[in-house]
Amino acid sequence: MTGSGRGIGLAFARRLAEAGHRVLLTDIDESTVRAAAETIEGATWIQQDVRDAESHAVVAARAAELGDLRVWVNNAGVLIAGEPWTHLQADVDRSFDVNVRGVIAGSHAAVRAMTGPGRILNVASTAALAPVPGLAIYGATKAAVLSFSTSLQGDLARAGSQIRVHALCPDVTATAMVDDVATDPGASILFAGSRQLEPDQVAVAGMELLASRQVARAVPRAMGAVARLTSLSPALALRLAASTRRTGEKNQRRGADR
User: Fold this and answer.
1) What is the CATH number for 188?
2) Model confidence over 53-101: pLDDT tens digits?
3) Whose CA is closest to 167, among 225, 110, 210, 196?
4) Where exactly are the transmembrane stretches of this chain (predicted)?
5) How far apart are CA 73 and CA 50, in angstroms?
6) What's the CA gap between 232 and 147, in Å, rounded?
7) How many other β-carbons are positioned within 10 Å of the β-carbon of residue 232?
8) Residue 83 is part of which domain span?
9) Exposed/middle/buried for 220, CB within 10 Å: 0-12, 13-18, 19+?
């Protein structure tokens, strides 16, 4: 389970452990993932940079030592905000390396390592479903995750595999990644709502998705319905996004004044 030192990944690890799985946590921050694993009985951990494609095979081999690999969660992600033409190329590369190539490499390692029925859960975002001005690069990477996941499921089904792939698209969630851009004007669209999801809410929805035959799910479900409607008219979707962003800017200013 990548990116599981904190936030959504750690919440997933706890839920999977409660469901009887032996969990293997990975994160780029060794001290963080070690501390996280210590909070879950029977859990183990590995330091991992998901940008290293070979690292996923190492993680899969370690997981196989613990028992048959049945669930693989690709959760690690990064976020950059602002006008996309202002981003440093290194930051754009990192976004795609972590958010997209990391998911692809992890999924490939999981498919190769699973010897029977298995589940792969890729954490995308509602940013994959509709325009997110200010988060264009992030939205592009998450749209890629959603597209890859659904297409991979088709390929596995055609091959007669017992492995199923799921893509979870949560709305804004109270994580350190979101907190880090709380005062960034480019990320204002994230702060338009009155409430953010809690990581455990996302994990519960993910567990439900893993137990189903549904390929993709938005959290909350209503966000998926709204996105599908707005996708029929990109111009309308952009107008709604602009309005949402203005609300987020007001909320950011209120937060700064407290």
Assistant:
1) 3.40.50.720
2) 999 999 999 999 999 999 999 999 999 999 999 999 999 999 999 999 9
3) 210
4) none
5) 12
6) 18
7) 8
8) 7-257
9) middle
157 is catalytic: no
pLDDT in tens, 203-257: 999 999 999 999 999 999 988 787 777 778 889 899 999 999 999 999 999 887 7
The pLDDT of residue 256 is: 76
* Residue 236, in any domain of the structure: yes
Structure tokens at 120: 């792969």
Distance CA 168, CA 197 (A): 14
Task: List strands edge to edge, sheet with 118-123.
Answer: 71-74, 118-123, 163-170, 216-219
Q: 165 by DSSP, 3-state: which?
A: strand
Question: Nearest 5°: phi and psi at 226?
Answer: -65, -45
Number of structural domains, the chain? 1
What pLDDT digit, counting tens, does each position of 161-176 carry? 999 999 999 999 999 9
Residue 1 lies in a domain: no
* Residue 67 · residue 19 · CB < 8 Å: no
Q: Which of 138, 170, 187, 191 is catalytic?
A: 138
Pairing of strands 44-47, 163-170: unpaired
Predicted structure pTM score: 0.95
Residue 148's SS3 state is helix
Kindly state whether residue 43 falls inside one of the protein's structural domains: yes
Number of Cβ within a 10 Å radius of residue 112: 12
Q: Are 216 and 166 in contact (CB under 8 A)?
A: yes
* Ramachandran angles phi, psi of 46, nearest 5°: -145, 135
